[in-house]
Amino acid sequence: MSSGGRQGTGAAEALALPPRAGAFSRSRSGDRLFDGVVRGAVWSVILLTVGLVVSLTWESWPAIHTFGWRFLVTSTWDPVAGSFGALPFIYGTLVSSALALLIAVPLSLGAAIYLAELAPFWIRPPIAFLIEMLAAVPSVVYGLWSIFVLVPWLRDSVQPVLGRWLGFLPLFQGPPYGVGMLAAGLVLAIMIVPYITAVSREVLLAVPNTQREAALGIGATRWEAIRMAVLRYGRSGLVGAILLGLGRALGETMAVTMVIGNRPEVAASLFAPGYTMASVIANEFTEATSDLYVSALVEIGLLLLVVTIVVNGLARLLVWSVSGPVGGHRE
């Protein structure tokens, strides 16, 4: 037999030999180590979340035990008398977030539809990058811009006009301070537009092209195809994007604190100052002089955490119903 044949036979025999037991052992040890590390990472996140909820509940227990459900429906916030109620902060958080959604949702969905369906291909990446870059701007920068630009503009131009023409409505009554619920809603709207736009764009891009082609094939116009095929198919994901924006608005602190006025009262007018749950924690935690005062602030933080977790969890479920879970496989 030639040398080439002997070499080929030797190579085949070498390939046919089973790997050494040590190689299998090292491979299994590496797999077990990797599995343990990633499992530990997952459980650490879960335990961190549970520990956060438990610790906040423990620290807020004196206020929970003292005020009970009255804490959620009482408007009095008097640290001197030791009487605390979270209703003005809950009201301010909900109203400012709702106003932000009312302004941001049409802008965000319009931008997402344009970028996903109508814009020329060469302009889509730079516009998408600019919109997403707005999400990286620190909130204190938005707050400073609001103080020096937005608030004077509202005080001198917008609120007097709204009061003159719509002053018969309770929403637009009162002196034009500039700071107040309207300013907080506007700055929140500016801050959540990038989030809603980015997620909505991804949801629309995840809609199969067969949906568009089927609508156009039966004679639909471009807008009819978008409205009936694309938006209807991605409806749950778009709602999830809106809820993600809502979760962002609920937890915003610095920008809102700088423009909302920080007055604990429930007022129907958007011109009136208000307060949010995040703002009262940021403003008063360092000034809390009694254990009950600290406990009341921690209970507000617990309420904000629970609301934010519920809103974000619901948003994730709605997004997954369209695009599939993260890391999952789509047919």
Characterise the protein shown here:
This protein is mainly alpha-helical. Helices cover 74% and strands 1% of the residues. It is built from 13 helices and two strands, in the order αααββαααααααααα. The protein has a two-stranded antiparallel sheet. Strand 1 (77-78) and strand 2 form a beta hairpin. Helix 4 (87-118) packs across helix 12 and helix 10 packs antiparallel against helix 13 (291-323). The protein is globular.
Brief synopsis:
By secondary structure, the chain is an all-alpha fold.
Output the keywords:
331 residues; mainly alpha; 2 strands; disordered C terminus
Number of helices: 13
Low-confidence runs of at least 5 consecutive residues: 1-6, 326-331
SS content category: mainly alpha
The outline comes out as: globular
Major sheet: order of its strands?
Answer: 1-2
The value of Rg in angstroms is 28 Å
